[in-house]
Amino acid sequence: MTVFRNKSSSIAVSLALLFVSGVSGAYSQVLDRGDIVGTVTDETGAALPGVTIIVTHVETGLTRVVTTDGEGRYVAKLLPVGSYVIIAELPSFATVTREGAVVEVGSAPVINVVMPLATVTEAITVTAASPVVETRRSVTATTVNQTAIATLPINGRDFRDFALLSPNAQVTPGLRSPIRFGGQQGDYSVINIDGADFTNPFFAEYSGSLETKNFAISQEAVQEFQVLTNGFNAEFGRSTGGVINVVTKSGTNNWRGSGFLFLRDEALTADDPFGNAPNEFSQQQFGGSVGGPIARDKAFFFFAADLQNRSAPVTTRFNRDVSGIAIPEFEIADFADLEGQHPSQQDLTTLFGRVDSDLSKNHRLTVRVNYANNDSTNFTGGRGQAIVAAAENNFEDFTNDALSMVMSLTSVIGTRAFNEFKYQYVHETRPREAKSDDPEIQIFDTCASGCFGREFFLPIDSTHVRHQFVDSFNYLFGDHDLKFGVDWNSTELSDNKFIGFASGTYFFASLEGFQARQPIGLAQRVFLNGFNPDNVELDGYWQHELGLFIQDTWQPKANLTVNYGLRYEAQNHDDPQYPILGNTGQIPMVRQAPGTDLRPVPQTIKDDKNNIGPRLGVSWDPSTDGKTVIRGAVGLYYGRTASIFLPTAGSGFRDSALFMFPPPVEYPGLLPSVVTPGETPPVPIPPPSIGFVSEEFENPRVFNLNIGGETEILPNLSVGADFIYSKSNNLRIGSACGCFITFDQNTFPPTGTDQYGRPIGIDAGFVDTDGDGQILRRPDPTAGLTDMLSSLGRSEYRALVVKAKKAFSDRTQFFGSYTVSKDEGNADTERDVDVFLGAANPYDVDAEYGIDERDIRHRFILSGTTEVGAGFTLSGILNLRSGRPYPAYTLSDVNGDGQTLSRGNNYDRAVDASGNLLPRFPFRQPAFYNFDIRVMWSRAFGEGGNLDLLFETFNLFNNGNLETNIFTIEATNFASFNTFVGTQRTAQLGIKYRF
Fold first, then answer.
1. CA pair distance 176, 384, nearest whole angstrom
2. CA nearest 563: which of 8, 18, 10?
3. Is the dihedral of CA 118, 121, 122, 126 positive or negative?
């Protein structure tokens, strides 16, 4: 591993590898297709060169014709997923036909052929399935085939949930639920659909599914997909831990289609773990698909639609008893009147269309269009739960529209060269409207995420337009499969309204403090220096990403495959369109890192152009029988930084100045929202809180290593194990976007430490002692809290995975895995967790290092399908895991550094009852248990059709899966269970017709 200690040595090693020479049977992994490779011999085992190999896609008639080389080896590349027939022809030998070969996404099944002399027989047909063990894959991968997609119970039919069958995957708790892989944050995962990046670069979420979790493409349109973790090759980028590759369905020579209806109702749903009945709950999901030939063997189409109407109650339940408390300033007779159930609605629509056409025998054009709409009312914002400690007027109405188009041209150039060009266009909008104009009220022990009033981040509006160009070229020579390419991705953000705290948010430490009307803080957005979002025209804000790669797959021996390559990535941001200023119109002077001299706040967003990642993978079949593989991979990987984490002030896509301080006005009054130059405001305006990107900022860099093996112990049954190690650097500390985590650099150094090692005497100066509006105890008094986006975080992840897989045979298939892992770090948590936690000590971030919120120590998952007879099919998914870590912190700012989390409240590491300083995540939630099951009965119906009747139950045993999101250790209800993960037991009835 020492060869990867620095970038210069990595480059040298990689360049040396790229010029290794050797003596075709190798293959390189592809995003949305696969290869077939093999060797042709005579009956004595001697290699047969010059054999004509005809590879035909059963469903569409697509044909590749290749010839074996001097060693009798052949490669058929860029094949659509599906079933294939392979014909081998050579004069004087019998023609051999191999049936039953299946190409899955990113796979390269080894199909060897033995040709007897023609004197024995003129033709032989052999039926043999593809091998269960992929002996030429060095990366850790999980492939979900069409059988699993068609039969496993998926709650909500969101195809992304199939990725959770991967041993190294876990869903991020919370609203958006991006998927984490291999110990990395969900922000750094990537999903590709038909080889095009489906990740929204601004939010690091999925197109058509912003700020919520919903299906954005019909499950009826998904052919299969693959999860790659910790070791993928140089063609894959912008991800530090995992890539999901999805392949959509195409039309075939045969007409096929479906129609379905799934129904849920309150009568089929249990009470939630707190006894709330699912009143007014109903869900209808319906749609279908159709596909067939436009011109047989030449052109095909496929169309799918998926629609959902969902009505579900949202329960308001505060964390303390609030009955009898009147709030006359907001015309609330009894605080408890805000509790109870409220209706919510979520309507989803997805429309999918795809056309495949052979322009000639060597050129195929594919065009795919997908539209997704999510229209939600009484959406619960960043909480995303069925039970919230917030009133209905703290909710929002939400719409997300996304249109994506992908065009792909695949070309075969002679017998050795192949090229694939892709273009993607995405247009996405997502207006979010507030349900109140009143100031938001937060009471930390009662409703810390907002009790009532306008949700602090609303309203929001934005438009995203993306253009992606990808071209990759393959060339076969000798034992080498050389591939190189370019990936250019540009995203424009326009029409933006992203104004946090526009109506103000008042903070109260406790319910008693609220009753006494003694707020401890006010956060309000005030626009200075002539900036007014209502009358300022902003040009589009662009982000550009470049990826270049070169990789080679070398097969020096029939049982040994070596993948090596190099990837370069760059990320470029537009500069802010308005300056980042203090309250005097001058650029503040702050530290750029702990202990450094004061420097002007950078007025640009740092580009990252030095990301060079070497990759090396090896797979070895020691038995040479295709039933065992030893594999390993190592490399450097880089993640993209989502634009939402870039600075707020003056960026041109958010706003100007945020104040967080003890209220300078009497509750519930507010400051003026706009202060023009030369104007004397009615109350003193303290210096603004601002955000900026460090001059030393870099994208995350991760060293990944995996070593493992797999062997077939019985026909179609394999077992295996993998060890995975990741070491991450340049992780994000400080959000610089108002995302609730700050890394304040406008403070004086500490005067010492307390008995627990916490720095003290920093004194960020939030109190105006003489009433002149100036806070003089900051290095630069023209600015207040000055949040820096830094790359000072780091983490380590170790995991051991044991797994078993049975390919579909004897009417059964299953996949199971057990993972034991450890995840440590000091970086910020993600946006989509219960607590937004950063570094409590801005002068020693390594003091925060320890178990982090991603640490799931044990996880077991089992999925399977079996045809039990009489037309019945039984399938299920069992998911067990240990509890997630959670923090404990004090609301008092012990060291005076002004560090904040979760909407502005100060915090520091807590001390337990024994006088010990607690780590960042000292406690764990209870273990999680969930079992989903489907019973399906099928029978022939009509000419060539099948009718399916389905009954599904999610969380069959109604496990509560209770957790807490109360982390303030002084609170009387600290760590009390007040929420639940997943859903209460819900049953679903379905009917589906397939032809």
1. 8
2. 18
3. negative
The answer to whether the beta carbons of residues 881 and 859 sit under 8 Å apart is yes
The residue among 525, 477, 523 whose CA lies nearest residue 499 is 525
Domain locations in the chain as residue ranges: 24-127, 140-994
SS3 4: helix
CA gap 83, 127 in Å, rounded = 12
Residues 711, 620: contact at Cβ < 8 Å?
no
Q: Cα angle at 748 between 907 and 768, to 5 degrees?
A: 70
pLDDT digits (tens, 9 = 90+) for 298-327: 999 999 999 999 998 888 999 999 999 999
Per-residue model confidence as pLDDT tens digits over 81-117: 899 999 999 998 999 999 988 988 888 888 999 999 8
Query: Does residue 48 come out as left (phi exceeding 0), alpha (psi in the -120 to 50 range) or beta?
Result: beta
Read off the pLDDT band of 48 (50, 70, 90): very high
* Range list of β-strands (E), 582-641: 589-591, 598-600, 608-620, 628-638
| Domain covering 24-127, topology | Immunoglobulin-like (2.60.40)
Q: Each residue of 876-910: pLDDT tens digit?
A: 999 999 999 998 888 777 766 666 665 555 677 88
Q: How many angstroms separate the CA atoms of 195 and 892, rounded?
A: 50
Alpha carbon distance 700, 953 (integer Å): 40
Share of the chain above pLDDT 90, in %: 48
Which residue type, as a one-letter code, is found at position 874? L
The string of pLDDT tens digits covering residues 247-280 is: 999 999 999 999 999 999 999 999 988 888 888 8
Banded model confidence at residue 534, pLDDT cuts 50, 70, 90: low
Q: How many CB atoms sit inside 10 A of residue 486's CB?
A: 14
| First-to-last C-alpha distance (Å) of the chain | 54
3-state SS, 636-702, equals: EEECCCCHHHCCCECCCCCECCEEEECCCCCCCCCCCCECCCCCCCCCCCCCCEEEEECCCCCCCEE
From 387, 381, 384, 385, select the one nearest 315 (Cα to Cα).
Answer: 387
**Predicted confidence (pLDDT) per residue in 422-458, tens digit:** 999 999 998 888 899 999 999 988 987 789 999 888 8
Each residue of 803-839: pLDDT tens digit? 999 999 999 999 999 999 999 999 988 876 666 777 7
Which residue is it, tokens 């069959």?
956
- The enclosing H or E element of 514 equals helix 511-515
| Mean pLDDT (whole number) for 639-644 | 88
- Rounded Cα distance between 436 and 331, Å, is 13
What is the secondary structure of 31-83 as a DSSP string? SS-EEEEEEEEETTS-B-TT-EEEEEETTT--EEEEE--TTSEEEEEEEPSEE
Two tokens, residue 215: 């299906």
**Of 187 and 12, more confident:** 187
Q: What single-letter DSSP state applies at residue 162?
A: G
Residue 138 DSSP one-character state: -
Residue of 398, 365, 401, 366 whose CA lies nearest to 384: 398
Q: Which CATH number fits domain 140-994: 3.30.43.10, 2.40.170.20, 2.40.50.140, 3.40.50.11740?
A: 2.40.170.20
Q: By C-alpha distance, which of 509, 420, 324 is closest to 893?
A: 509
Predicted TM-score of the model (pTM): 0.88
- For residues 345 and 441, what is the distance between their CA atoms, to the nearest angstrom? 25
Q: Are strands 505-508 and 440-443 parallel, antiparallel or unpaired?
A: parallel
How many other CB atoms sit within 10 Å of the CB of residue 20? 12
Burial class (CB in 10 A: 0-12, 13-18, 19+), 857: middle
Share of the chain above pLDDT 70, in %: 89
Spatial separation of the C-alpha atoms in residues 25 and 70, rounded to whole Å: 11
From residue 47, alpha-carbon distances to 43, 127, 527, 937 in Å are 10, 22, 77, 49
